Input
Amino acid sequence: MSDTSNADTTPPPGTASLGIAQQYVKDLSFESPSSPKIFMSQMKQPNVNANFDVAANELGEDLHEVVLSIEINAEIDDEPVFVAELAYAGICQVKGATQNVTRQALMIEVPRQLFPFARAVIADAIRDGGFPPLLLSPIDFNKLYQEHIKSSVAEGNIAE
Output
């Protein structure tokens, strides 16, 4: 039997690890600019537009904050019904990965894990605002990341 009290917790060479230590609401906003008028009228199904963004900030060696931003705008006949904005974040650690793998983990895998919790926060905020909860469909964060890379290349911010 060997003593593991001082064992190194770094992953073996060639393997990477990802862990999310904390999740939290960084910013949450809900507005219903047309209330109470909107509640007094025969309300049709609103046109809902959802926008998503992901950002990663380095906090220290192997430690990062990933922020999933969601903005929901609902309108009926060009009149705003509600606006919900959420910045939902997670503090995560990526060890033993190349810079490219780390970037993909931060921009694809971490938001994928944060999304169900962010979706619940948005649904509750909209419901608490007096509207039926909006259940967002799952997001393809890989596609979102690839689109971000393409636009960054087109803008000249990064090389192909």
Observations:
- The beta strands are 17-31, 47-60, 63-76, 79-95.
- The two ends are 52 Å apart (CA to CA).
- The mean pLDDT is 86.
- The chain is about 30% helix and 40% strand.
